[in-house]
């Protein structure tokens, strides 16, 4: 891959980074200078800030509170935000906690998201990432919530957009038969089989503080992702079965595997992972499985209690079965098989203690 062109940016200034591709339409794109393309857009603001702060002990990390004010967390203390905001679709739990500040109009909802994400930006480390899982809304007309989230993160908060993952649920998982006019052109409707995960980073593309210096300074520095997991996680389509609401006890849970992939890909062991919309605690369960610290906020004390119980159950299970025994089973039969791609033989159970550090 060719190197980026141009001098390193001065702190606090903007710059467009050149890239190289071949002629458009060709599968491999390494030699064509695309600088003129990027010059058409406002240059992002890049930072060389490398201050990283370790957050204080927050117990089990399940906190009852408003994530628009996460005063328990210091600036630059969170490595990754993974969240799935409450969908603005009139679910019972939104009605129940409306008195606690859940907005009653879509524009108010977007304003609430903006305030929460702004607080997330404050607590993120330089180079820390935020991953927001959203479902697009409605059919009369369709509303692209993912586009609104991108606008907030990129245009209003100045984050660097890193990409979008399409989460493909198992076919028929939603139970939707809302196909409109069946076998007639009058008004056929696309059925929802996917959601989006919007990913952005704060101020820089890489994590602040090089790995060697992290280790010297006592900061998290150990990557735990295996080759197969890395190759699967860096695709922009993930096939993961949806979670059942009646099994978890929350009307809109997301599967633990979704935050787990993001945590494995973007964090080091013992990094701090934040979910500002804690819900049933799936993100914190995933963080525990991956050997990371987790913290989450929710306005509803019942969901905080549910998250605490799920996390306690998970930690008991991990005490009985060490983290090294965990092996991700979701890779079998998914969209790509990477076994042997790098001449590595992968056998048996392979957990974080045996994984290669590919930072």
From TrEMBL:
Q: Where is the composition biased (Low complexity)?
A: 9-23
Catalytic activity reads:
a 2'-deoxycytidine in DNA + S-adenosyl-L-methionine = an N(4)-methyl-2'-deoxycytidine in DNA + S-adenosyl-L-homocysteine + H(+)
Q: Where is the DNA methylase N-4/N-6 domain?
A: 78-309
EC supergroup of this enzyme: transferase
Record keywords = DNA-binding, Methyltransferase, Restriction system, S-adenosyl-L-methionine, Transferase
| Gene Ontology cellular-component annotations | cytoplasm
GO BP field = DNA restriction-modification system; methylation
Q: Does the keyword Methyltransferase apply?
A: yes
Annotated region (Disordered) at 1-28, 339-359
In short, the EC number is 2.1.1.113
Give one GO molecular function term.
site-specific DNA-methyltransferase (adenine-specific) activity
Family that this chain belongs to: Belongs to the N(4)/N(6)-methyltransferase family. N(4) subfamily.
Q: What is this protein called?
A: site-specific DNA-methyltransferase (cytosine-N(4)-specific)
Q: Which organism is it from?
A: marine metagenome
Q: What is the lineage of its organism?
A: unclassified sequences, metagenomes, ecological metagenomes
């Amino acid at each position: 891959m060719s190197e980026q062109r141009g001098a390193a940016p001065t702190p606090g200034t903007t710059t467009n980074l050149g890239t190289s591709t071949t002629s458009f339409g060709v599968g491999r794109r390494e030699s064509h200078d695309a600088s003129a393309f990027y010059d058409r857009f406002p240059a992002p603001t890049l930072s060389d800030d490398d201050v990283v702060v370790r957050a204080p002990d927050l117990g089990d990390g399940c906190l009852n509170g408003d994530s628009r004010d996460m005063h328990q967390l210091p600036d630059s203390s969170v490595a990754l935000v993974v969240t799935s905001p409450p969908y603005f679709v009139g679910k019972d739990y939104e009605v129940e906690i409306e008195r606690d500040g859940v907005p009653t109009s879509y524009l108010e909802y977007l304003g609430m998201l903006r305030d929460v994400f702004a607080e997330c930006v404050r607590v993120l480390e330089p180079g820390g990432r935020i991953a927001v899982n959203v479902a697009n809304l409605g059919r009369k007309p369709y509303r692209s919530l993912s586009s609104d989230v991108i606008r907030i993160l990129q245009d209003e908060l100045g984050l660097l957009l890193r990409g979008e993952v399409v989460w493909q649920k198992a076919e028929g998982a939603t139970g939707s038969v809302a196909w409109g006019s069946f076998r007639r052109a009058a008004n056929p409707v696309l059925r929802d089989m996917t959601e989006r995960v919007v990913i952005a980073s704060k101020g820089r593309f890489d994590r602040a503080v090089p790995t060697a210096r992290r280790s010297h300074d006592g900061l998290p520095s150990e990557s735990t992702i295996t080759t197969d997991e890395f190759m699967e996680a860096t695709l922009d389509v993930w096939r993961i079965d949806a979670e059942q609401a009646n099994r978890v006890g929350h009307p809109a849970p997301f599967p633990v595997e979704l935050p787990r992939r993001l945590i494995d890909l973007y964090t080091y062991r013992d990094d701090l992972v934040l979910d500002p919309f804690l819900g049933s605690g799936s993100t914190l369960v995933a963080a525990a499985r991956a050997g990371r610290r987790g913290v989450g906020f929710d306005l509803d004390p019942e969901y905080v209690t549910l998250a605490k119980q799920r996390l306690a159950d998970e930690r008991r299970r991990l005490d009985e079965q060490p983290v090294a025994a965990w092996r991700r089973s979701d890779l079998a039969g998914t969209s790509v098989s990477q076994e042997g791609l790098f001449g590595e033989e992968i056998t048996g159970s392979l957990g974080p203690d045996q994984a290669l550090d590919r930072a």
